[in-house]
């Protein structure tokens, strides 16, 4: 009897107040997210994209290399000019050597345009990474909420098994006293198998939930998680759809990334148009002549100017691609605005529904009525005034009510996480 009352007190305390008390070495949701941000491999991979964009910035800032050229000319082919002594020259006896260096002069400021586009690309990549981190953090928070639910359901399964074990003990005493038949007692024992199976299932689901969270946190096994998960109860307040929508439109990183992408496309377009202008190369060349007998100067300098003629290639493809990217980002901004409004509205509605459902359980007296009905059934069964079927029905009603309450709590926690995710806020 004392064990029965103790188990009942545990169940009431656990289920009436929702979340487990913080155990020594436990873990809250922010700690789980922080751990994932440090160790999750997907996050580490997305952060490498920022480094790639920074490398593109370095590439955009590099000056073109100067061009060195060497020419050996005046190689005699066939009969050459005889020298003043009438000797027929050999093929290499009258060489003219020319050494030159040329460099592209950036008169169109192409380098600065490339650097500006690369800077926009870095910022765009940062926002994309921020959005990727937001999605991964959302997965961690959802997995954490699932773990909390599994912990509560696991404790409920163990508590109900302990209570039914007391029912079996009491029924055994009644059987030995001749108050119930052996057939009824065996039925009671067989019914206990359901509670044992529920405990096994609950233990399995809890292990799986811990493993899912550990994987998202970048841990090798669930044993590396720092203790049990806990989520303290927060006061429920009515969300403001208008305020949350305004915040989401201003802060969501995916929308900001699309807007930044539009600026990136404009910078890329400006750079592509500049790239269409011909590169002007200036150079200097030194010529040394081995055919001075003909009147050549032994050494002479020359200045060179060269540029390609933009007759065919005027960078049409890259300019058109930049125009297309600008249109695509404009469409992304419009699409995301509609999507964000819808996501915020749906998440707020789910939160309001979950909050209302919790009120039915916590303020409508459903938990107390189920508990009182079970207490009456257990007392009556001990007194022999109700049958086993009636006791089992009261127990099933009690378990279903408690389980539904735990699911309602989980739905509310998940709805809070969904609202935070849809608005770009941190989930509590």
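^ structure tokens above, recovered residues below v
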């Amino acid at each position: 009897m004392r064990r029965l009352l103790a188990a009942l007190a545990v169940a009431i305390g656990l289920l009436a107040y929702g979340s487990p008390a913080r155990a020594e070495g436990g873990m809250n949701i922010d700690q789980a997210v922080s751990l994932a941000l440090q160790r999750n491999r997907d996050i580490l991979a997305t952060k490498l994209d920022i480094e790639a964009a920074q490398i593109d910035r370095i590439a955009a800032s590099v000056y073109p290399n100067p061009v060195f050229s060497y020419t050996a000319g005046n190689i005699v082919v066939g009969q050459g000019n005889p020298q003043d002594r009438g000797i027929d020259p050999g093929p290499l006896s009258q060489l003219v050597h020319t050494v030159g260096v040329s460099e592209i002069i950036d008169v169109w400021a192409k380098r600065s345009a490339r650097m500006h586009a690369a800077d926009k690309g870095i910022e765009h990549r940062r926002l994309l990474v921020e959005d990727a981190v937001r999605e991964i953090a959302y997965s961690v928070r959802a997995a954490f909420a699932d773990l909390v639910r599994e912990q509560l359901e696991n404790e409920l399964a163990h508590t109900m098994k302990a209570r039914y074990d007391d029912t079996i003990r009491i029924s055994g005493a009644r059987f030995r006293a001749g108050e119930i038949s052996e057939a009824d007692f065996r039925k009671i024992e067989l019914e206990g198998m359901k509670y044992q199976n529920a405990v096994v299932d609950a233990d399995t689901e809890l292990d799986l939930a811990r493993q899912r969270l550990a994987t998202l946190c970048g841990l090798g096994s669930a044993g590396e998680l720092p203790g049990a998960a806990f989520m303290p109860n927060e006061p429920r307040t009515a969300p403001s759809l208008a305020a949350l929508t305004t915040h989401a439109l201003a802060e969501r990183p995916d929308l900001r990334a699309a807007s930044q992408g539009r600026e990136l496309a404009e910078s890329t377009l400006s750079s592509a148009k500049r790239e269409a202008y011909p590169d002007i190369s200036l150079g200097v060349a030194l010529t040394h002549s081995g055919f001075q007998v003909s009147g050549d100067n032994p050494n002479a300098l020359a200045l060179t100017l060269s540029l390609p003629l933009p007759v065919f290639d005027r960078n049409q493809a890259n300019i058109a691609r930049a125009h297309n990217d600008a249109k695509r980002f404009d469409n992304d901004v419009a699409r995301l605005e509609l999507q964000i409004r819808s996501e915020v509205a749906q998440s707020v509605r789910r939160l309001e529904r979950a909050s209302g459902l919790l009120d039915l359980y916590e303020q409508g007296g459903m938990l107390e009525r189920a508990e009182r009905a079970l207490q009456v059934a257990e007392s009556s069964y001990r007194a022999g005034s109700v049958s086993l079927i009636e006791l089992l029905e009261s127990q099933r009603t009690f378990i279903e009510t408690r389980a539904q309450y735990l699911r309602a709590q989980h739905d509310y926690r998940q709805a809070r996480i969904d609202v935070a995710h849809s608005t770009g806020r941190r989930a509590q």
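The longest strand covers residues 96-105.
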